[in-house]
Amino acid sequence: AQSVAQPEDQVNVAEGNPLTVKCTYSVSGNPYLFWYVQYPNRGLQFLLKYITGDNLVKGSYGFEAEFNKSQTSFHLKKPSALVSDSALYFCAVQGYNFNKFYFGSGTKLNVKP
Amino acid sequence: DVKVTQSSRYLVKRTGEKVFLECVQDMDHENMFWYRQDPGLGLRLIYFSYDVKMKEKGDIPEGYSVSREKKERFSLILESASTNQTSMYLCASSPPGTGGSGYTFGSGTRLTVV
After folding, report:
1. Nearest CB to A42 within list B4, B42, B107
2. Residues B75-101: pLDDT tens digits?
């Protein structure tokens, strides 16, 4: 069975500090992993994805994510947080049925000035 | 710019009403999806469709049905709205076939059933 876990409901970080939003997954076969961001009252926007290759993936708005196969994790990171990064972040896995995504429960990121 | 458009941003309906949520995409995508989003539960798949007139149940189809008469349009129907269907509803589309193609989401419809 495919599943995604985001262990933190909320992450608080000061502006300028590095941030990490955690994600672990369970999937049959090789995973396709995604991060999406949602701003208030909006749909989800694509940030980045891991398909194959380099374990460090770079995406939009300065975000990056590190794929770790042994730990089945795909944590989202940014070296220096901005107040405008405050939003809801979702990790997702696209499993054996390529057309179906499984989403985590979401992590609310609060970046304080 | 490619788009998935949901016809309503906010809806308020009464218990027992039949409710239609419309979604249109202009990317010629074969796959379309309906999710509902609730705090702490993430996104849960209601129904999806791989082609015109084709539909498959997702994880929480009870109380819902769908219609896909044209490739670009995927409608979610609440046959008899109930208060526990108050939620944010998100439509998404994706191209067919190989993995790694992400979803494109609409802006969502926040439905309140009173």
Report:
1. B107
2. 999 999 999 999 999 999 988 765 566
Residue spans of the domains in chain B: they are: 4-113
Q: For the residues A64-74, what does the mean pLDDT come to?
A: 94
Q: How far apart are CA B30 and CA B33, in angstroms?
A: 10
Dihedral of CA B1/B3/B7/B13: which sign? negative
| CB proximity A103 to B under 8 Å | yes
* B107 touching A (Cβ < 8 Å): yes
Average pLDDT over chain B reads: 91
Q: Which of B42, B92, B97 has its CB closest to that of A104?
A: B42
With H, G, I as helix, E, B as strand and everything else as coil, classify residue B76: strand
Domains of chain A by range and CATH? 3-112 (2.60.40.10)
In single-letter form, the type of residue at position A79 comes to: P
The superfamily (CATH) of domain B4-113 is: Immunoglobulins (2.60.40.10)
